[in-house]
Structures are given as structure tokens and as C-alpha cells.
Amino acid sequence: MTDREITRRQVRERYGRVAREGGFGCGCGPGCCDGTQNPQEVSASMGYSEEEQQAVPEGANLGLGCGNPVAIASLKEGETVLDLGSGAGFDCFLASQKVGASGHVIGIDMTHDMLEKARRNAEEGGYANVEFRLGEIEHLPVADASVDVVISNCVINLSVDKPQVFAEIFRVLRPGGRLLVSDIVLTAPLPDAFKKSSLLYTSCVSGALLKEEYLKCIRDAGFSSITIHGESVFPLNHIISEPELISTIGAVPLDEDERKRLSESIISIKIGAEKK
Fold it and tell me: Looking at residue 175, what is its pLDDT?
């Protein structure tokens, strides 16, 4: 098994556990973030309104995002939307309400447990225009030029081949299609000890690209009109979610200034782009 295959399996196993046990915050599990926040509070801090959170089936919001891509997508009636790493379906259900009965929403997730949860939520909520498919975001089970909008929320950073992800997004979008993502990027390289941590990878940290590298992946895939809709420091209490994570980060010898720079270098960013 290659290193990439091992990493992909670790991501699948971690988020399968989150689906079974519940969770919130990128990479979090039950009782994370010191028990001081719940999925609704985390999602509110990421830009989701109370109305949006109440508009989806119970259990759809696991608080796993780092932004609200639906809010910047300007979705229209009748559009086809693809959500990469759809989890329990939160963003899919919000998108469903925007595109209406004449539109269609497809959620892609590589975790069986998440798919089961999302499909159950869709059935209970009566979302006839939403479907969920098993697949990896590097190899989308979607036809060429069949989608109007692609959204994703704190997922592409977990991919082991991000250029391939953006190439796949470009492939499935129709001419004139749009990409709107919220994700984690870095403004400075991580310490080597962090880069080697599988726990930090599955927690959306050590797999994140430098901001300029991330934007280059989008450009190289063929996108134009690349726009940053907003960026902010991603709160560490949404990442340091378990004793293992705390000990991993605490074991790295950093002085106070280095630790401050590290905390300020992990960024939540919202990016839009177009396929001409």
C-alpha cells in the first residue's frame, strides 16, 4: 500500500467514525473543542444563519466545515450542483432549497457511513432533488460537462492529489460553470513534525497547501476569474479537538512567538472561479 493509499484510508476511517459517533469542527469527534461548543455554535461562527441551520434535517449539520460555500454560490432555480465531500448532507440540503424542484444536487463522499447518514436525512426530509454517490473527489462519478456549480467545504485540503481534484472539477463543469469552495490553506509552512502527523492531516492541518499553491492548482486546472471572497484565521479550538491533537502540537518545541505565528498561519478561505 502506498503512502497516499494509507493517508486516504486514514481519512476515510476518521470521518466514518465521526459519522457514527457525531462530531463537529474539522477533524473533531464527540466531546471535542473542550466540550465548550456544539455543531450549531461552530457552524454559526462559520457563517451559517440560524435559519439555515434550522432548515435542514436533524443530524445533517455535524459542524465539520470552515465556511459556508452555499452563501457565496448565488445558486439559481434549475441548476445542477455538485458538493464534494458532502458528509451528512448539510450543504446539499441548503443548495436544494436554492435550486428548487427543477434543479438537482449531487453529493459525493467516500465514506459509507456518511452516505448512509446523508441518504437517511434526505429521505426523512423529503429531498427528492438530492442524491448521494459514493466516490473519491480525485475521480468523480459524474459525467463530463454535466454540472453548473461545484461547492466544497473544508474537504479538498484532505485530498492526497489536489491538482487532480481541480482537474476533475473542471471536467464535470459545463462551460460557464462555477466553483465555490471554503477550505483551509496556510500562509506559512508548517514545522516538519506537524507535516508528518497523520492525526493533523485528518484534522485538516498538515494536508493544507500554502495559499499561493492552492490558487495555482485552480489556475493550472484551467479556471479563470479566480476570486477570494473572504479569509480569516481558522480558530485553533476548532482543530485541537482531542487530547491526542493537543499532545501532538504541544510536543513540538516552539517558543511563544513561533506558536503565535503558527496559529495565525492556518486560514479559512472562500474562493470562487469560473470555467469559460
Answer: 98
